[in-house]
Each structure stands twice: as C-alpha cells, then as structure tokens.
Design goal:
single chain; 157 residues; mainly alpha; 7 helices
C-alpha cells in the first residue's frame, strides 16, 4: 500500500523536484516550530513560567487558532514528505516511535485544552495541570528529538 502511494505521479514529481521538496521541507519545519511553540507557550504559562498576569483561558484563546493553523500545515507537509519514501518510512521503528510520541503529545495537548476552563477557575493552578503541562513539553521535545534522529538511524529523510 505504501509503495503504491510512493509511486504515484504527484509523489514522483515531489521527490524529483529539488525546489518543491525543499519548499515542503521548509514549510514543515517552520510549521512544527510554530505549532509546538504555541503549545509550549501555554504549557509554560500553566507551569507559572510565562505570562503569569494573563488568565489561562485568555492565553489559550489567543493561541488556539495559530496552533491549529500550524498543526494543519505540519500534517499536510508531513504527509507529503512521508509519501516520498512511504514504503521505507512505514517499515522502520524510529518513524513508528515518532508517530506514537506525536499521538501522545496531541492527546496531552487536547487534555490540556479540555481541562483549561476548570483549571482557570481554580484559585491556584492545580498540581495535575502542572504535571500534564510538563509531560506535554517532554512529549513534544521527544517527538522533535526522535525526528532528528531518523536520518542518522535509518538513512531516510
């Protein structure tokens, strides 16, 4: 199945066009830092490190559209980069680990998003919130570190 995707016409065009592949790569890396950056800003606020004068829900509301725009760009550009070597990527453990860590990181970000109204009403940010925010930061850092190691460990990318 993945090999069939890899050999479609549009994927072949992407794979053989240096400027197009480079453009998709730049979009992907920029969007990753944009998306993860907005998530980490909120996590740091929950931890009490950043912007302590602003309510959690207000900051989340300001960051939410940018986070989702970044996430959409990451998903689309990531799929395009994956498609170029889909058969090879799907078969290697580091890539599968990356996908697992990303899924866990997204779940943690959604858990934070869903819990924010309750945490915002509390007189003090609950310990649970701080733990989830710390886990979120560690998961996103882990996803980035695993991603960086995929070429070194597999020769892909």
């Amino acid at each position: 199945m993945w090999e069939a995707l890899q050999h479609t016409g549009w994927v072949t065009t992407l794979a053989t066009s240096r400027w197009l592949y480079g453009l998709v790569s730049v979009v992907h890396y920029s969007a990753v830092f944009f998306c993860v950056g907005t998530i980490v800003l909120l996590d740091l606020r929950i931890l009490g490190v950043a912007d302590r004068n602003q309510a959690l829900s207000v900051l989340a509301e300001q960051l939410r559209p940018w986070t989702w725009i970044g996430f959409g760009a990451v998903a689309v550009s990531g799929f395009l980069l994956f498609a170029v070597e889909a058969g090879d990527f799907a078969a290697v453990t580091p890539f599968r680990l990356k996908m697992l860590v990303i899924v866990l990181a997204v779940v943690s970000a959604l858990a934070i998003e869903w819990s924010l109204p309750k945490w915002d009403r509390a007189p003090v940010v609950p310990v649970t919130a701080r733990v989830v925010a710390l886990i979120s930061i560690l998961l996103w850092l882990g996803a980035i570190l695993v991603s960086v190691e995929i070429p070194a460990l597999t020769g892909l990318g």
